[in-house]
Amino acid sequence: MEKAIEPWGVNVPYLALGLVYWALGGATISLGLHPYFMMVGSYAVFFGMISRLFFPARKYILGHVITLALLSVPLYPFQALASASLGVTELWGFKDTKSYGAKFPVNVLVLSSPFASFVAWLLFPANYEVLLFPLTLYLLGVNVGVFSATMGFKPKFGAKQVPLILLSVLVVKYPVLPVLGYVAWLLYDSKPRVNATAMATLSASIATTSASLLLGQELHAFALGVMMTYFFNCITYSTSRYNYQKAFPIPLLLATSYFTRFLNLELSSAFTAFTVLYFVYLVKDNFTWRTIKLGISAKYLS
């Protein structure tokens, strides 16, 4: 019993914080604070999910709370401090796992993302694009498991992920390159099967980032076609798998949001807002006291 893991729903308060900051970002879309609020919201979702997937135990609740508190302060350099706190918590969890004698595949992309986040947030006043790199590391890494489970791709970990780390650096200027490289990497040495939601997710990310080469708005192509799309893909699968097939419209709606930006900004914003609300509906069973207490969707407990 000494080595038993007692999880809690660490991702729930982080996801709530992320939704609040995304709402603030949407409300300030014509103001200079819009990109900052959207990024803080995205990192809140990122930090919550990495904590849930890799070190969800109540033993680490102090690290979880400190990270959440630091991240929630909308001032520089609190997000960098939150990243440092997350990194320390990750090392703590990794050390405990090693001491238990457990062996597991090392997801280098995901595990390196908190440290990349620390550096990126220290540098971010220079430009927002630098914040895309840690998000890309996490999103590509965490979705390896999802795409392997849903489409039958051969999972690749450890040193096999190094090429993706190098490709992810290019997201700052050319978001299409990490996406295309990721899809090629997934396909290599694999025999994929059809899954509508997973295929729509990959297709939307390719379509938006490829189109951005001609249309521009690379940051929004990444945010809508990759960041939100991949976030919602992995969160729905990992927390509310019973609704995963219902998530099929999400990547299509987010891609539509990107393309309609060039026609009508209000219409584009409406597509994004509707998609976020639909996602919340799909994972609504996680927003309960029992989920926070036990770390599992209320649907599985009923």
From TrEMBL:
Q: Which UniProt keywords apply?
A: Membrane, Transmembrane, Transmembrane helix
The answer on whether this UniProt entry bears the keyword Membrane reads: yes
Q: Which residues cross the membrane?
A: 12-29, 36-55, 106-124, 130-153, 165-188, 194-215, 222-242, 262-283
**KW Transmembrane (keyword) present:** yes
Record-given protein name: Uncharacterized protein
Species whose genome carries this gene: Candidatus Aramenus sulfurataquae
